[in-house]
Amino acid sequence: MCGIVGAVAQRNVVPILIEGLKRLEYRGYDSAGVAVIDKGRCIARTRSVGKVRELEARLDVGLAGGTGIAHTRWATHGRPATENAHPHICRKTVALVHNGIIENHEALRRAQMQLGYEFTSETDTEVIVHEIYRRLAETGDLLQAVRAALGSLRGAYALGVITNQEPDRLVAARRGSPLVIGIGIGEHFIASDVAALLPVTQRFMFLEEGDVADITREAVTIYNAEGEQVERPIKQSEMSADAVARGEYRHYMLKEIHEQPRAIADTLENRIGLHNVYEEAFGHTAAVIFAQIEAVQIVACGTSYHAGLVGRYWLEGLAGLPCAVEVASEFRYRKPRLAPNTLFVTLSQSGETADTLAALAYARQLGLAHTLSICNAPESSLVRASELVLMTQAGPEIGVASTKAFTTQLVALLLLVAVLGRHRGLGPAGEAQLVNLLRSLPTQIEQVLALDAAVQAWVPYFANKQHALFLGRGTQYPVAMEGALKLKEISYIHAEAYPAGELKHGPLALVDSDMPVVAVAPNNELLEKLHSNLQEVRARGGELFVFADGANGIREDAQTHVITVPPTDDLLAPIIYTVLLQLLAYHVAVSKGADIDQPRNLAKSVTVE
Ligand code: M6R
Question: Over the stretch 154-164, which tens digit does the pLDDT of each residue have?
Answer without folding.
Answer: 988 999 999 99
